[in-house]
């Protein structure tokens, strides 16, 4: 479409083996198929009340009668979605996306033709971000804007197909890239993005191999994608396109995007990847390129703010629960058995908390949001001693980022710039051994670290549905002319959010919220501080 730049302002068959062979030829230059792969309590001082002002960037004077209006104006400005029409004068065209059936109605000749399909989302449709009206800041998990917890509506853009689009599908070149670590559901999203693009009429779809590295690494070629090629990739875990951390400078990536004549870029990843997608979006706008950059939130840690959950989280919890069940059986079957499970959670304890809740077999759950002591009268070790004495065995679940203040920090970082955490699991294993040996009590410790198992598996049913919707909505958002957005779920509704609003800080478990309280009720653990 011509545009004028504004001058102002567990399944295996022959077909699956062929898919893996085709993938390996593109990613590695050779086939690496293997038949084996197809088989299978301490008193505390009262704390002062703190009102947590949420989702606000503007300084508010609550004595000003118009503070609500000021807040909502600021909210609307921040959650307004960037569009390619911000830099281009474009006229929309009727969408090519329609699921209506071409059929002739039966009955009298005066009946209305059945050619209307009401499956489009209006640009003015909104969804509420929050639905709980807290009566007081002292309510469990209260998130208040002002000291009185006044109700203020916080609306965000509803996701879905629009009647008008800003791209000619037969002229579009779309690219998909998967970044960061592995996560259940990556193949599901890739598959749905391809399916939906083809439904619009896009023929030129490519995959960028091995994350952002595929934009600049010599020898890595883009992979042509089609419905036939990706039909069954959701039946396996991992990423059909491959993943990697880190990347080149933003300018080099955009140079590659420009040279490849990419019109739409779909970026699947977590916090760091979203920040990278936002940088690419900004650079494209700076160069006045007609490129829509749309992210899809991927992380098993579930630590991207504002959204209900990210894809891969439910599957990771399910797999983590299996590890906990194994630890429970090992501990229960041993004399003075202690099952210790370390789960992923770089900056948040969502997996550990939800897996502990779902298993119902955890006696102690430790997360990074809640500090704890191992030694002392009120420490974890003393509690384990009591559990062994009273019930004969116990199960401990710890998030990988928990208790880092108890360990020596190396200061090293990975390719994405994330701090390399010290191993709290091994540390606790040694501390438990030393403690029970010191008091002359036998303890049989079973340590399980399922880190890579929980992220390399195929998406479960819940995540598969989430991936399907997020992938489809990402394409709808791109054709609607949005860029610098992420396709997500908020308050059970599918919405678009500006990427700038979800990369401010990681989401963390609210240790004053009801879910953490439910976890404490389930484990029966005391306060270890």
TrEMBL record:
Allosterically activated by AMP. Keywords: Allosteric enzyme, ATP-binding, Cytoplasm, Glycolysis, Kinase, Magnesium, Metal-binding, Nucleotide-binding, Transferase. It holds the Pfam family PFK. Its cofactor is Mg(2+). Mg(2+) binds at residue 271. One of its GO terms (molecular function) is metal ion binding. GO terms for cellular component: cytoplasm. Its main location: cytoplasm. It catalyses: beta-D-fructose 6-phosphate + ATP = beta-D-fructose 1,6-bisphosphate + ADP + H(+). It is found in: Cytoplasm. Residues 174-476 form the Phosphofructokinase domain. The record marks 272 as: Important for substrate specificity. Pathway: Carbohydrate degradation; glycolysis; D-glyceraldehyde 3-phosphate and glycerone phosphate from D-glucose: step 3/4. ATP binds at residues 181, 245-246, 270-273. InterPro entries: ATP_PFK (IPR022953), PFKA (IPR050929), Phosphofructokinase_dom (IPR000023), PKF_sf (IPR035966), PyroP-dep_PFK_TP0108 (IPR012004). Catalyzes the phosphorylation of D-fructose 6-phosphate to fructose 1,6-bisphosphate by ATP, the first committing step of glycolysis. NCBIfam families: PRK06830.1. Homotetramer. Belongs to the phosphofructokinase type A (PFKA) family. PPi-dependent PFK group II subfamily. Atypical ATP-dependent clade 'X' sub-subfamily. PANTHER family: ATP-DEPENDENT 6-PHOSPHOFRUCTOKINASE 1. This is ATP-dependent 6-phosphofructokinase. It comes from Triticum aestivum (Wheat). The gene is PFK.
């Amino acid at each position: 479409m011509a545009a004028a730049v504004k001058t102002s302002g567990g399944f295996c068959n022959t077909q699956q083996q062929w898919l893996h062979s085709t993938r390996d030829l593109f990613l590695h230059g050779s086939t690496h198929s293997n038949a084996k792969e197809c088989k299978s309590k301490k008193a505390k001082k009262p704390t002062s009340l703190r009102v947590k002002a949420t989702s606000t960037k503007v300084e508010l004077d609550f004595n000003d009668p118009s503070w609500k209006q000021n807040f909502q104006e600021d909210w609307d400005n921040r959650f307004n979605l960037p569009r390619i029409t911000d830099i281009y004068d474009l006229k929309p065209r009727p969408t090519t996306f329609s699921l209506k059936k071409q059929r002739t109605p039966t009955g009298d000749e005066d009946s209305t033709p059945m050619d209307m399909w009401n499956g489009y989302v209006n640009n003015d449709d909104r969804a509420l971000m929050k639905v709980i009206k807290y009566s007081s800041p002292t309510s469990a998990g209260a998130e208040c804007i002002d000291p009185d917890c006044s109700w203020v509506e916080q609306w965000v853009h509803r996701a879905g197909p629009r009647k008008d689009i800003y791209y000619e599908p037969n002229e579009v070149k779309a690219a998909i890239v998967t970044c960061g670590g592995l996560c259940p559901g990556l193949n599901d999203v890739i598959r749905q993005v391809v399916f939906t693009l083809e439904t619009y009429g896009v023929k030129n779809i490519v995959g960028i191999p091995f994350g952002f590295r595929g934009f600049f690494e010599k020898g890595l070629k883009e992979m042509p994608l089609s419905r036939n090629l990706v039909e069954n990739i959701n039946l396996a875990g991992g990423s059909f396109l491959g993943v990697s951390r880190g990347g080149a400078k933003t300018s080099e990536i955009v140079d590659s995007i420009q040279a490849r004549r990419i019109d739409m870029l779909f970026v699947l990843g977590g916090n760091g990847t979203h920040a990278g997608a936002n940088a690419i979006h900004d650079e494209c706008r700076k160069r006045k390129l007609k490129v829509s950059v749309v992210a899809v939130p991927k992380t098993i840690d579930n630590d991207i703010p504002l959204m209900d959950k990210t894809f891969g989280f439910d599957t990771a919890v399910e797999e983590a629960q299996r590890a906990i069940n194994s630890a429970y059986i090992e501990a229960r079957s041993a004399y003075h058995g202690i099952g210790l499970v370390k789960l992923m959670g770089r900056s948040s304890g969502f997996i550990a908390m939800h897996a502990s809740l779902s298993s119902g077999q955890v006696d102690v759950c430790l997360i990074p949001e809640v500090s704890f002591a191992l030694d002392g009268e009120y420490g974890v070790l003393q509690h384990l001693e009591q559990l062994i004495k009273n019930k004969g065995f116990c199960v401990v679940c710890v998030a990988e980022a928990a208790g880092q203040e108890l360990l020596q920090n190396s200061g090293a970082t990975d390719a994405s710039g994330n701090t390399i955490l010290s191993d709290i699991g091994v540390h606790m294993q040694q501390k438990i051994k030393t403690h029970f040996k010191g008091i002359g009590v036998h303890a049989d410790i079973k340590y399980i670290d399922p880190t890579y198992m929980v992220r390399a598996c195929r998406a479960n049913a819940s995540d598969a549905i989430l991936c399907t919707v997020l992938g489809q909505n990402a394409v709808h958002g791109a054709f609607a002319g949005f860029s610098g957005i992420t396709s997500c779920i908020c308050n059970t509704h599918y919405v678009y959010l500006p990427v700038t609003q979800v990369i401010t800080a990681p989401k963390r478990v609210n240790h004053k919220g009801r879910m953490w309280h439910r976890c404490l009720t389930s484990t029966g653990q005391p306060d270890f501080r």
